[in-house]
Amino acid sequence: MPIYYNSETKEFHLQAKNVSYIFNILKNNQLGHIYYGKKLKHRASFNHLYREEFRDNSTHVYEGDQTFSLDQLKQEFPAYGTSDFREPAYQILQEDGSRITNFEYKSHTIYYGKPKLTGLPATYVENDEEATTLEIILYDAEINAEIKLLYTVYEKLNVITRSAEFSNHGNENLNLTRALSVNVDFFDSNFEMVHLSGSWARERHVKTRKLEQGIQSISSARGTSSAHQNPFVAIKRPDANEHQGEVFGFSFVYSGNFLAQVEVDHFDVTRVQMGINPFDFNWLLENGESFQTPEVVMVYSDEGLNGMSQTYHTLYRTRLAKGKWRDKQRPVLTNNWEATYFDFDEEKILSIAKDSKELGVELFVLDDGWFGKRDDDTTSLGDWFVDERKLPNGITGLANKITNLGLDFGLWFEPEMISKVSELYEKHPDWLIQVPNRRLSHGRNQFVLDFSREEVVDYIFNMMAKILREAPITYVKWDMNRYMTEVGSNELPANRQREVVHRYIIGVYDLYERLTTEFPEILFESCASGGSRFDPGMLYYAPQTWTSDDTDAIERLKIQYGTSIVYPISSIGAHVSAVPNHQVGRITSLETRGNVAYFGVFGYELDITQMTDEEKEIVKEQIKFYKDNRELIHKGDFYRILSPFEDNVTSWMVVSEDQTEAIVGRYQVLGKPHPGYDRLLLEGLNPDFEYQIEGKEATFYGDELMHAGIHLDRTMGDFTSQIFKLSKK
Ligand code: DGJ
Question: By alpha-carbon position, which residue is closest to atom 1 of ligand 1?
Answer without folding.
Answer: 529
